[in-house]
Amino acid sequence: MLQSKLLLPTLREAPAEAEIISHKLLIRAGLIRQLASGVYTYLPLGYRTLRKVEAIVREEMDKSGAQELNMSVLQPIELWRESGRDSAYGPELVRLKDRHEREFVLGPTNEEVITTVVKNEIKSYRKLPINLYQIQTKFRDERRPRFGLMRGREFLMKDAYSFDLDWNGLDVTYRGMYDAYTNIFTRCGVRFRAVEADAGAIGGEGGTHEFMVLAEIGEDTIISCNQCSYAANLEKAVSGVGKALQSQQIGIGNQVSPAYESFATPNLKTIEQLAGQLGVDASSFVKTLIYQAGNELIAVVVRGDRDVNEVKVKNYLGLVEDIELASESKVQAVTNAAVGFAGPVELAIPILVDQEVAAMGSVVCGANQTDQHLRHVLPGRDFPLDRIGDFCNVRVGDPCPNCDGTLEAFKGIEVGHIFKLGTKYSEKLGAAYIDQDGQEKPMIMGCYGIGISRVVQAVVEQNYDDNGIIWPLSIAPYHVHVIPVSMKDETQRSVANELYQTFQDIGADVLLDDRDERPGVKFKDSDLIGIPIRITVGKQAGEGIVEVKLRSEEDKQLMNLEEVVSFVKNQLATIG
Amino acid sequence: MLQSKLLLPTLREAPAEAEIISHKLLIRAGLIRQLASGVYTYLPLGYRTLRKVEAIVREEMDKSGAQELNMSVLQPIELWRESGRDSAYGPELVRLKDRHEREFVLGPTNEEVITTVVKNEIKSYRKLPINLYQIQTKFRDERRPRFGLMRGREFLMKDAYSFDLDWNGLDVTYRGMYDAYTNIFTRCGVRFRAVEADAGAIGGEGGTHEFMVLAEIGEDTIISCNQCSYAANLEKAVSGVGKALQSQQIGIGNQVSPAYESFATPNLKTIEQLAGQLGVDASSFVKTLIYQAGNELIAVVVRGDRDVNEVKVKNYLGLVEDIELASESKVQAVTNAAVGFAGPVELAIPILVDQEVAAMGSVVCGANQTDQHLRHVLPGRDFPLDRIGDFCNVRVGDPCPNCDGTLEAFKGIEVGHIFKLGTKYSEKLGAAYIDQDGQEKPMIMGCYGIGISRVVQAVVEQNYDDNGIIWPLSIAPYHVHVIPVSMKDETQRSVANELYQTFQDIGADVLLDDRDERPGVKFKDSDLIGIPIRITVGKQAGEGIVEVKLRSEEDKQLMNLEEVVSFVKNQLATIG
């Protein structure tokens, strides 16, 4: 492509709404433009990279034996009612009515449709297992679209759905997808981890892994072991604390100990204030949080230095919807005290006690009375232990659940997610098959997503320097950037054109900067858009010598034309 | 691909809603399934062909110098208000509101968005001309979706938009698109004509051509000359009649002639009844039709044997919206007579007189009195000739407007459309550039669409026989169908597998029917899905002999393995 013709509007400054570096660079390098909040146009450069990621995904999905099809964006609301997701999805689901007032949704994901397709077309065990995928635009009406392509309202996604005879079959399919995803993200040139995750609103009875690109700006926290391969997102992560506690006696509060007593703690509402005042560590206290869980109130009691993990609480309660902290007025009503003085003693709502608290001896807690706390409180004696569980977030430094290692934390961007769905959709929508012995059985499903447009930006978030993007060769919009220092110099122009042609002939995607601009402008743009191989055709062009520089490295090399062609060939060979 | 694994549900019968042969075949051959009225899922076979058409379109667009980008499906309604199309498009425009009650449309076409993109990014004449295209899912809420992919509510379309400095530039770009389209449809293996067309609701000041696949079930009528290259759709077609008339004196009714008089024609309401009764040809009469044009009524007077062309009338009046026949009560009110007796004499509304009528001598027409007609009516003397034009449909047998030939009619399916838009959108949305001499000028636009999903079905409508589809090699879901007669025969199985591998190695898309089915079932399915090259591996497999048959031909040939590989290679070479 000739750069003079290309719609490639580079900018010195990114607009104010771009908060993170990858978003800024995608705009500055002329890859995307915002049309509305969370809705983007891919300019030619951006679309080239998007299609390269798409191609890698397609190749690896095909290699895994999955079959590509294509479902519609418009989905009849009736299917979502059958699965029960029309309400579960809430306001993120984009809805519309057609001219006959029939209601549709714009698919954010396609479990209902694919299950309907498979139910209609496959009846026998002979046609199973099958794994069907598509690469399609999806819609999600995010409450707060942000970070460019990271959290958009319209985005490109690969979604796959597998149908197996049984759980063992699903395990094999799932493993195949895990491997395919590993190949895909490796080929895209990102550093990532596959982590255990919570299934969330999509449901599912089996396991689930998120593929996380490691990046400081990631919205998700990944917990991983410094010794073994254990990795999970914060919502799901467990530590070795629970295992250690199993050897201890639960409810040791039954030992002989003085009765609890209250003491004045005026205006000491937080654990930090309390610990500071009393001069003891926060881990000697327990804190009691009151949650709204559906229509009920519940209390969660955790050690003073821990944070409640709401997903663990929600899963313990078997809820679909998220829980949230109860309103101030409700807390006051149930504790008869100002907020900050709740405690588990004599509290008239269900009390979920974290496993660590259950194993503690005498503790300090709120007194359910304003400006008062209790001491010498014994778990099991002074409050019930009939609801014990792991209700805390893991912390850096906690022991690993699998080995002697220690847990670390990273920030990550979720770019892929694989689920064992089981029969959630096949039972609701009636996708069953006739087994060898004539019995009807529900198909065992899995689903597997990749946020293709998000990958594009995640790659940038990991690959840049002060001057711009540093594209991995595999998904760069162009492989080679040929830059004649002066287009007015006939020799340079002719050598540049010759190389432009030769590189195309060997299958490279080449951009020729044929603009009549100063060299400084050209190099600045070149660094900004980040094409991996830069060939500068300058004063030595007459001798057949050009300068080669990789965007990812500082060094420049002089090569003759033969050398540079074989150099580019070798580089291309690395991406297959 | 192994057929035993492929989601390829063939059917003996098509569902009742499939009215036309191509729709039936797409369903029976397992290419598509309906999810909702006008909304389809592409099964793997169907999606493969869709993607092959897409690839041809992309190649030819790239070759023409157009640049690919990708715009969003969601478009803010404000842009459609700026262009004025939000009302002009009517109920076909799919609308929705987001969670903040902001209104969006689902793009049926992207003039507003692309004009906004270009306006923001291009300011100088140096970056023009530019032609930008995308391949994207579009939405149109058809009043009556039908014929499968022919008239769906969600469909895949290639849309391109060009921006030129001036009209001469647009002419060049337009010609380039005309040529690219010719290449695309030729490569897709369809018989088509490019015809002059009316610009319709999309607007445009310059020319426009439709690319029509010739087919009996086509909803459009194409008029073309039997001698020269003249071709236009019926809405737009003109005949040589007008040219012939230019040499005649208009308003020859001014010659001396008896005054008109009325005569009784009880219950003779139609031209046919009248002509039969009087024993003269319908061409001696004129008929007068009353139309509702916006808020006004107008009369259109044409020769008795002609049909009014409403598009020509609408364009003469400079209207955006369609005109329609006036209601019975309005006709009665304006003519003071029952419907069927309208005439141009003493009629108190604007009268549009077809050029042919203007050149007639004495005519017979309605008397604006029930059961009465007038004779000896002279155009120009007895009714005004201040609004003369071409208001008739061309008819088969009319003279060609360009040569001595005669006009013929065909039915066609519109698969492509190219427009010279001019400044319609650039002026409304402010897409201007600074010229060499510092002057601001509006960009001159063109737009160019191809209905990719419609092409898939149009190809089938032209390429089938009693047994099923006959795919052109270029867009067939697979090139080669390898069919071992018996999968139980080890030799056949091994030869089939060897060929399967070899064909893949030479770049062919191969389907291997590895199912344990009777040969009759396999051949029936093979004919139905229409893979171009069928290789049957039967009893002579042990001697290295297989049977080769093209789906498009009756003959079968025996070949050894070497011959069959080079045969397939040669076939593939024909599609490049």
TrEMBL record, chains A, B:
Record-annotated membrane-spanning stretches: none
Domain annotation Aminoacyl-transfer RNA synthetases class-II family profile: ranges: 33-472
PROSITE patterns in the cross-refs: AA_TRNA_LIGASE_II
Enzyme Commission code(s) on record: 6.1.1.15
Alphabetized UniProt keyword annotations: Aminoacyl-tRNA synthetase, ATP-binding, Cytoplasm, Ligase, Nucleotide-binding, Protein biosynthesis
UniProt keyword ATP-binding, yes or no: yes
Origin: domain of life: Bacteria
Enzyme class, UniProt record, top EC level: ligase
Catalytically driven reaction(s): tRNA(Pro) + L-proline + ATP = L-prolyl-tRNA(Pro) + AMP + diphosphate
Protein known as: Proline--tRNA ligase
